[in-house]
Amino acid sequence: MTIVFSAGRIIANQHEVVVRLDGTARVSLQAAVDDITLLGKGANVVTALGSGVNWSLRLDSEQQLKDLANVIGIAIQ
């Protein structure tokens, strides 16, 4: 599934999440689903921590966070 947000897009499946940020740098962030945490309650943040991965990203809306949670099978905290 692909989720488009203001800074780029998220490509997610049951195993991994890849974030591709718009811009000339063409930044790409990748993490296994086991390393992902979803923070809700207005924060709408995706964090990846573990196995040499450490990044976080704020989404535009809670609906985008819910869509991601449904795809990767992780509850929003």
Descriptive report:
Helix content is 14%, strand content 47%. It is mainly β and 77 residues long. The chain has a 4-stranded antiparallel beta sheet with strand order 1-2-3-4, covered by helices on one side. It is globular and about 35 Å long.
Précis, in short:
This protein has 77 residues and is mainly beta.
Features:
3-stranded antiparallel β-sheet, 4-stranded antiparallel β-sheet, globular, 7 strands, 1 helix, 77 residues, mainly beta
Strand order of the largest sheet: 1-2-3-4
SSE class: mainly beta
**Approximate strand percentage:** over 45%
Spans where pLDDT lies below 50 across 5 or more residues: none
> Count of helices?
1
Cα end-to-end separation: 21 Å
Instruction: Evaluate the radius of gyration.
Output: 11 Å
Record the SSE blueprint:
Elements lengths: L1 E4 L2 E5 L3 E6 L6 E5 L3 E4 L5 E6 L2 E6 L3 H11 L5
Antiparallel strand pairs: 1-2, 2-3, 3-4, 5-6, 6-7
